[in-house]
């Protein structure tokens, strides 16, 4: 038994005008992400416009890559229903696809602007977790990413991501080496998603009882551990050479 319950996919309707809850929460998540990020602009001696431009690059690339990843995993459905490709308000954005596309596009943008990559990513990661938490509320309202046995998996995920946001912000208040916050984000978010998948009822378990997203989560977790170990080795070498 799954817990697919359609809540409020259309939050407002007036005549032919419809405001979809999923899209509304994505817009709200983006606005919160940029608003809070611009408040940290002085840390890199940057203007607010820089983070608005960076965020737009990440958003557009993230949406496209998230949708392409979803289409790739549900190719038969979209071959039979090609009109659904552009219907984002029905749901169907894969976070790992969005993260990869956003990370690549953001890294290219930062490189072209000659900005410190790891330092900037460390600044961004907590707010990315917060925007994910808001986006999960959109999933709950839309009825997608539903849980098994009527478990509100989306809300559990939102709460977990909110905790990750708080932890990362606390870590930002301490002294750390570049890349540390990014590594913590990768480790924490992959763990959250791995656990969440046990609650969800919308993904087949074709990999030894695991879903494809749990397999990806393991890869992301190992990437975070690898980055963390590189940072620790770098810090050790710096102490030995001092």
Overview features:
242 residues; two-stranded antiparallel sheet; 8 helices; 4 strands
Summary of the model, kept short:
The protein is 68% helix and 5% strand.
β-strand percent reads 5-15%
Count of DSSP strands: 4
Number of domains: 1
Distance between the termini: 61 Å
Q: Would you write up a description of this structure?
A:
This protein is mostly helical and 242 residues long. The chain has one domain. It is 68% helix and 5% strand. The protein contains 8 helices and 4 strands. The protein has helices spanning 21-38, 48-73, 75-80, 95-112, 117-142, 153-172, 180-199, 212-241, and strands at 2-3, 10-14, 17-20, 147-148. The strands form 2 sheets. Strands 1-4 form a two-stranded antiparallel ribbon. Strands 2-3 form a two-stranded antiparallel ribbon. Strand 2 (10-14) and strand 3 (17-20) form a beta hairpin. Helix 1 (21-38) runs antiparallel to helix 2 (48-73), helix 2 (48-73) runs antiparallel to helix 4 (95-112) and helix 5 (117-142) packs parallel to helix 7 (180-199). The longest helix is centred in the C-terminal third of the chain and has 30 residues, at 212-241. It is globular. The protein starts with a strand and ends with a helix. 34% of the residues are buried.
List the helices and strands and how they pair.
Elements: E1 2-3, E2 10-14, E3 17-20, H1 21-38, H2 48-73, H3 75-80, H4 95-112, H5 117-142, E4 147-148, H6 153-172, H7 180-199, H8 212-241
Antiparallel strand pairs: 1-4, 2-3
Helix pairs in contact: 1-2, 1-5, 2-4, 5-6, 5-7, 6-7, 7-8
């Amino acid at each position: 038994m799954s817990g697919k319950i359609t809540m409020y996919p259309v939050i407002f309707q007036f005549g032919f005008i419809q405001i979809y809850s999923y899209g509304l929460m994505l817009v709200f998540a983006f606005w919160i992400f940029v608003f809070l990020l611009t408040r940290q602009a002085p840390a890199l001696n940057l203007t607010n416009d820089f983070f608005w431009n960076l965020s737009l690059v990440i958003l557009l690339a993230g949406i496209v890559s998230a949708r392409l990843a979803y289409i790739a995993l549900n190719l038969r459905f979209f071959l039979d229903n090609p009109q659904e490709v552009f219907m984002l308000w029905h749901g169907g954005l894969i976070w790992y696809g969005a993260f990869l596309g956003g990370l690549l596009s953001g890294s290219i943008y930062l490189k072209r602007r000659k900005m410190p990559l790891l330092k900037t990513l460390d600044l961004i990661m907590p707010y990315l977790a917060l925007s994910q938490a808001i986006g999960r509320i959109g999933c709950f309202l839309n009825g997608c990413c539903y849980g098994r046995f009527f478990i509100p998996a989306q809300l559990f995920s939102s709460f977990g991501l909110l905790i990750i946001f708080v932890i990362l912000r606390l870590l930002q208040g301490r002294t750390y080496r570049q890349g540390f916050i990014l590594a913590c984000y990768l480790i924490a978010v992959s763990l959250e998603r791995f656990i969440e998948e046990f609650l969800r009822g919308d993904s087949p378990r074709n990999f030894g009882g695991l879903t494809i997203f749990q397999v990806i989560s393991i890869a992301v977790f190992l990437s975070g551990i690898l980055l963390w170990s590189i940072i620790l080795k770098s810090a050790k070498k710096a102490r030995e050479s001092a």
